[in-house]
């Protein structure tokens, strides 16, 4: 998959430009074409969609033309996900959500629609912000060494140590494997040793993955 640089604002709350706002109510009460964020559990999948239990009911999330979903969608049932997308409320059908991005909790990865998809984040005038707390850095991985990697956020370069994380994001065992060139968001605490340069002790590392073919 091709990685592309994604501009994400980090803030304490979700905020969008005045031209668009996130719907806070049920997707079945939201206006057609409005943007909404829902979190919940995947209950089942089809070839191009999945059912999301968002706590107050089920809603269909459409994943048309998502290469990643075509390859991995069948493994999602039971997973906790967060979906950001556009409400598609056809008069003759139940409301659905056209997914723009999907965060899969156990994969530690945000997936974004491909540039060719009509719901692509790159076609929007705004993008949702993400509240991850603590110290947050988003940038490109420039090098990997054991349990550490370096990240270039554009304004600075920082060493990130993943040794204290509950899993190893550098190994081959899970879906996530941090590699040079990846776009990531790191959350953690600064640690300064008098004998070493300051580094970020990671609590979480989220891979930002554009759903485009290589």
TrEMBL record:
Q: Which residues form the DUF5666 domain?
A: 138-198
Q: Where is the signal peptide?
A: 1-23
* SUPFAM superfamilies per the UniProt record, alphabetical: Hypothetical protein YgiW (SSF101756)
Sorted alphabetically, the keyword list is: Signal
Gene3D superfamilies attached to this UniProt entry: Bacterial OB-fold
Q: Which NCBIfam families match?
A: stress_OB_fold
UniProt protein name: OB fold (BOF) protein
């Amino acid at each position: 998959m091709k990685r592309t640089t994604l501009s994400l604002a980090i803030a304490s709350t979700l905020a969008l430009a005045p031209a668009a706002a996130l719907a806070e109510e049920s997707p079945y009460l939201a206006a057609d074409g409005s943007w909404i964020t829902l979190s919940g559990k995947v209950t089942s999948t089809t070839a191009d969609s999945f059912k999301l239990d968002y706590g107050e009911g089920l809603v269909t999330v459409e994943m048309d033309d998502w290469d990643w979903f075509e390859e991995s969608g069948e493994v999602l049932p039971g997973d906790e996900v967060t979906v950001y997308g556009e409400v598609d409320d056809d008069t003759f059908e139940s409301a659905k959500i056209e997914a723009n991005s999907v965060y899969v909790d156990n994969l530690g990865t945000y997936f974004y629609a491909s540039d060719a998809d009509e719901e692509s984040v790159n076609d929007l005038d705004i993008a949702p912000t993400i509240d991850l707390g603590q110290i947050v850095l988003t940038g490109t991985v420039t090098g990997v060494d054991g349990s550490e990697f370096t990240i270039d956020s554009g304004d600075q370069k920082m060493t990130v140590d993943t040794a204290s994380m509950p899993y190893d994001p550098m190994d081959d065992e899970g879906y996530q494997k941090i590699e040079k060139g990846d776009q990531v968001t790191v959350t953690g605490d600064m640690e300064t040793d008098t004998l070493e340069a300051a580094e970020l002790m990671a609590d979480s590392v989220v891979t930002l993955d554009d759903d485009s073919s290589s």
